[in-house]
């Protein structure tokens, strides 16, 4: 799981503490005897999430089958900060059964989360740069084998921008396929990026060609 609350380290540390406290609380409850009401109550809290997963993942065992394994899974889950406050941003994935990573800029560009299934990003779009937004999307990737287990939680405006960004990528690929059929060199391709009006391709000092945007209606 990846938690990406802010580019600033103070909120990241706060989320790290919240998650660590919740995990410790769950571990203590799961250590209780099987007939303890608090233990049964905690397992019931997972029922809505389990029911939701069953809508996209066929053959998922019943919660009653999974519950006995929950105690060990919680014990073997590591919560780690990935930012300038951390001693190291290197993750040895084999050191734990599962990971919850909390960070910001350190996970923006070039950072791969192995086996990422859950992304929680309670932050806005910022400057709404398309390239930065795309780099922030660690939940994109080659996940066909376990796609039914993946979940992404975003602010509504960021969710809309990611959806429109996917449309932009599909359109750009279609343009490239059409241009390939002309047999002309790629340098002659006229770039046309159909982006959401709220998105900018990148920072102005990155592009070395003139660009134009249509006027708002």
What's the SSE blueprint?
Elements: E1 2-3, H1 9-30, H2 37-45, H3 47-54, H4 63-75, E2 77-82, E3 98-103, E4 118-121, H5 130-135, E5 151-154, H6 156-180
Parallel strand pairs: 1-3, 1-4, 2-3, 4-5
Helix pairs in contact: 1-4
Can you tell me about this structure?
This protein is an alpha/beta fold and 217 residues long. The protein has one domain (2-155). 38% of the residues lie in helices and 10% in strands. Helix 1 (9-30) crosses helix 4 (63-75). It has a 5-stranded parallel β-sheet.
**Strand content of the residues, in percent?**
5-15%
Radius of gyration: 22 Å
Shape: elongated
Would you identify the regions where 5 or more consecutive residues have pLDDT less than 50?
none
Please give the number of β-strands. Answer: 5
Quick one: biggest sheet? 5 strands, parallel
First-to-last CA distance? 40 Å
Query: What's the helix count?
Result: 6
The helix/strand order is EHHHHEEEHEH
Helix content: 25-40%
Oligomer: single chain
Largest sheet, spatial ordering of strands? 2-3-1-4-5
